[in-house]
Design brief:
The protein is mostly beta strands and 301 residues long. The relative contact order is 0.09. The protein is built from 3 helices and 20 strands. The strands form 7 sheets. Strands 13, 14, 15 and 18 form a 4-stranded antiparallel β-sheet that branches. A 4-stranded antiparallel β-sheet has the order 17-16-19-20, with no helix packed on it. Strands 3-4-5 form a 3-stranded antiparallel β-sheet. A hairpin with a 6-residue loop joins strand 10 and strand 11. The N and C termini lie far apart (110 Å). The chain folds into 3 domains: 125 residues, no CATH class; 59 residues, no CATH class; 84 residues, Immunoglobulin-like, CATH 2.60.40.
């Protein structure tokens, strides 16, 4: 019901459009521009001779086969839609919109050039008024709020080397690594998306390490000597994960650095000719990057 009047012509009730704008005018203009592209080999066949229009197609499937299709073609002056399908909803065998586009092309061309133009409702080259603020960058349209530097930035996120997911408070320091990622913020929704190197997941947390994991252990450090040659002995034990490496140092100098795969006795030999105490440090690492370190001393007389 649009309007109600009484016998005297007085308006008793009248419909009023109370709708609100939900699409930004810049966004609408840019979408219309995109849908009007007539790039050869893309949607060139959807153009109307002598008339700039936008076009969109769609299909419905039935059992993975096209059941019907529709085409919408429109200009600032006129909209035409076409549906193609069978009344019994059987499949049509093709999803090619070029079956219906010749009809739309001829009708839209005639309606614009022979009807609307003569009635003053359309003129050649007519298009939507470009909203203020739209910017052209490298030949493409962008809204006023788009800024490449503002919408994209880089930051560092701490990941777990093993799971390649975000580190947690249970992730050992040895398994943590800082990776530079690209952060993009949608200017409209303000939603953030993160692009990470292949294999990494910024949307999940480390699920390999647990706070109650058993770390590797190092037994007492002992040594024997024959003259200036000292042999360091130490027992190492794996925790939740298998052992992977050991390093033994004497006064900060590495005397053994190698891979290991099982628990047991480890030895290292060093020649010492300086009297006094020499500090020995043993560090083991497992496959989950948990580490253990123990120190001892050698007394040289």
């Amino acid at each position: 019901m649009i309007e109600v009047k009484n016998s005297q012509g007085e308006t008793l009730k009248k419909w009023k459009d109370e709708g609100k704008q939900v699409i930004d005018s810049q966004s609408a203009y840019i979408v219309n521009d995109i849908l009007s592209d007539r790039t050869p080999g893309l949607h060139g066949w959807m153009g109307v001779n002598g008339v700039r229009t936008s076009a969109k197609t769609g299909t419905s499937d039935k059992g993975s086969q096209p059941k019907d299709l529709w085409i919408i073609n429109y200009s600032p002056a006129l909209v035409m839609g076409m549906w193609l399908g069978n009344s019994d909803t059987s499949v049509i065998g093709t999803s090619a919109s070029n079956y219906g586009m010749p009809v739309i092309r001829k009708v839209m061309e005639f309606a614009h050039t022979q009807v609307y133009a003569k009635e003053g409702k359309w003129k050649s080259g007519q298009w939507y008024e470009r909203p203020s603020g739209i910017q052209t960058v490298n030949g493409e349209l962008y809204p006023s709020w788009w800024n490449k530097r503002q919408s994209q930035s880089t930051e560092k996120i701490t990941f777990d080397k093993v799971s390649k997911k975000k580190a947690t408070n249970c992730t050992p320091d040895g398994a943590k690594e800082e990776i530079e990622v690209t952060k993009i913020i949608d200017p409209l929704t303000k939603k953030e998306s993160i692009t990470v190197p292949s294999g990494y997941d910024a949307n999940a947390e480390d699920n390999v390490h647990k706070c109650d994991d058993t770390k590797p252990q190092i037994g007492a450090i002992s040594y024997t000597n024959s003259g200036k040659k000292y042999t360091i002995n130490v027992d190492v034990t794996a925790g939740t994960s298998g052992l992977s490496a050991i390093e033994i140092t004497e006064d900060g100098k590495s005397i053994k650095s190698s891979e290991i795969t099982s628990s047991g006795k480890q030895t290292a030999t060093v020649e010492l000719d300086t009297t006094g105490a020499h500090t020995v440090s043993v560090t083991v690492r497992d496959s989950a990057y948990y580490t253990a370190t123990s120190t001892g001393s050698i007394q040289v007389h």
